[in-house]
Amino acid sequence: MLARARARLTRLPAEQVPAALARGALLVDIRPAAQRAAEGSVPAALVIERNVLEWRCDPTSSARLAEAVGDDVEWVILCSEGYTSSLAAAALQDLGLHRATDVIGGYQALKHVLY
């Protein structure tokens, strides 16, 4: 399942996340609150826990975020190590959000870039 999900994504190395943010991509941290508290937070990220991701990012949902303005939004999904985020990004693509992707290595890789 993970391999099939990743085959559909253009995954971002952590080093490319700052450039993605500069071009307007939205970085979404899907880690649970306890994990963010233990590992650290990412100030530039929107926090949308995994269990509510689809209906918060889907522009057709009545529970969507203000940032979910259409299917051309670039969603960059972040989890701890880059496994759950791949599956989550693929789920967003299934909703028609074809620019959804994730960060290779997740927060564990990104923290070395940001800090």
TrEMBL record:
N-terminal signal peptide: none
Molecular-function GO term, any one: transferase activity
SUPFAM superfamilies: Rhodanese/Cell cycle control phosphatase
Cross-referenced InterPro entries: Rhodanese-like_dom, Rhodanese-like_dom_sf
Pfam families, sorted: Rhodanese
Coiled-coil boundaries: none
Organism annotation: Mycolicibacterium duvalii
Keywords: Transferase
Protein name from the UniProt record: Sulfurtransferase
Keyword presence, Transferase: yes
Entry keyword Transferase: yes
